[in-house]
Amino acid sequence: MSSVEELTERVRAFARERDWEQFHTPKNLAMALAGEVGELLAELQWLTPEQSAAVMADPELGPRVRAEIGDVTVYLVRLADVLGIDLVTAALDKLSEAGTRYTVEAARGRADKIKDA
Amino acid sequence: MSSVEELTERVRAFARERDWEQFHTPKNLAMALAGEVGELLAELQWLTPEQSAAVMADPELGPRVRAEIGDVTVYLVRLADVLGIDLVTAALDKLSEAGTRYTVEAARGRADKIKDA
Amino acid sequence: MSSVEELTERVRAFARERDWEQFHTPKNLAMALAGEVGELLAELQWLTPEQSAAVMADPELGPRVRAEIGDVTVYLVRLADVLGIDLVTAALDKLSEAGTRYTVEAARGRADKIKDA
Amino acid sequence: MSSVEELTERVRAFARERDWEQFHTPKNLAMALAGEVGELLAELQWLTPEQSAAVMADPELGPRVRAEIGDVTVYLVRLADVLGIDLVTAALDKLSEAGTRYTVEAARGRADKIKDA
Predict the structure, then answer these.
(1) What is the total count of domains within chain B?
(2) Which residues of C touch A33 (CB under 8 A)?
(3) Which UniProt keyword terms apply here (chains A, B, C, D) (predicted)?
(4) Residues with Cβ < 8 Å from A85, sequence gap 6 or more?
(5) What pLDDT, in 10s, does the model give residues D87-114?
(6) Cβ–Cβ below 8 Å for A25 and B88
C-alpha cells in the first residue's frame, strides 16, 4: 500500500472513531482546508522571499510551518477520500494538461505565462 | 518509489524545464496554493451540503472539482518539496497529536471539539 | 469624511507609528488578508447552514466571528490603501458589471448562474 | 448615509432582486469571500515584492487587481450584512485591541511581533 493510501485510511479511521463523518461534507472539508492554508500563509506573510526560503532552518518557525503543511495535507487527503478522488492521479493529469498549455519553449523563464504550475 | 515521491519529481522537473524555480519561493507557492484552494471553494460555495456530497456525480461539476483537487495537490507537493518537508510524515505526525488532544471518549460526535481533524 | 476613509487613516497611522510599512507590500497584505479569511472560515466550518445563520446569537462564537470580520476588514482596507484603490467604488463597479451579466430575468433563483455576487 | 451603508443596500437589493438570498448563508458567503481572495492572490503570486508594489501601474494587471478587490469587498459587505455586523466598527475595535497588544515601543519595526495588523 502506498503512503498516501495509508494516510487516507488513518484519517478515515480517525474520523470514524470520533463519529465525525457527519461533519465531513465536502463543503466543510473544503472550508477546513482553506482555514489551514490560511494558517500556513500567516506563518510566511511578513517574511521576505529570502527569509521564507530559509524558514525551515529557523528553530521556532520551521516546526510551525511543518505542522501547518501537515494539517493542510490531512484535510486534503480527507476531502479527496470523501469525494472519491485519487489525489496523485488527479495531480498528474493536471500536470500533463499544463505541460501542453505551457510548453518549455513558450514558457521558459516567463512568469506571465505561469497561470498554473 | 512511492506515488507521492514520483509526483514530487515530476513537478520538480516540470518547474526546472521551464526555468520556473526562480518564481517558486515558499511565499509564492503558498499564495498559489491558496489561490487554487479558492478555486476549489468557488465550485462548492453555492451548493447545499447534500448537493456537495453528490458533486462528483455531476457531469459538469465533477471534472471541475477533480481538476481543482489536482491543482491544489500539485502546489502542495511542490511547496513541501521546496521546503524539504515529507508531506505524509508531517500529516501522520499531526494526526497523532490530534489523537492525543481529541480522544475518542471526549470528542465523539462533538463539533465544538473539532479544532483540527 | 466617510467612515471607510476614517478607518483607512487609522490603519495607515497604526502601521506608520510602528514602522511597519516596510512589511506592507501588496503581496504580504494579500497573504495576511487570506490568513484572516481562513480564521473566519475556521469559525464556521463545522456548523450546518442553519447554525451558521444563527451564529451571532451564540455568546462564544458571535464575538469571535465579529473579531475575524474586523481583522479581515482591517487588512482589506490597508491593502486597498497601499494599492491606491477606492474600495467602495471598486465594489460598486463590480456590482454594475455583475448586474449586466446576471440579469434579474436570467439569474432569478438560479445558483448555477451565480459565479459572482 | 455613509458609502459603506449605500454599498450594503445595493448588494442587498442585488441579491433580493435575483432571489439569491437562499444561497447567502454565512457559510456560503464566507466560502465566496475566500474564493475571491484566492483570485486576488493569484494575480500577485509570481510577482516580486517590488513588482507587486507597482502593479497598479501595469495596464493589464492593474484593472484585474482592482476588479478582485471589488469582488472581495462585495462579498465582505454582504457577509457582514447577513451577520448583522457593522464592518467599520468591528475593524476599529480590532485596531484598538491590537494597539494595546502591539504598543509602539515594543512593536516598532519588528515583524515577529506582527501577528495581527
Answers:
(1) 1
(2) none
(3) Hydrolase
(4) B56, B65, B66, B69
(5) 999 999 999 999 999 998 888 888 775 5
(6) no
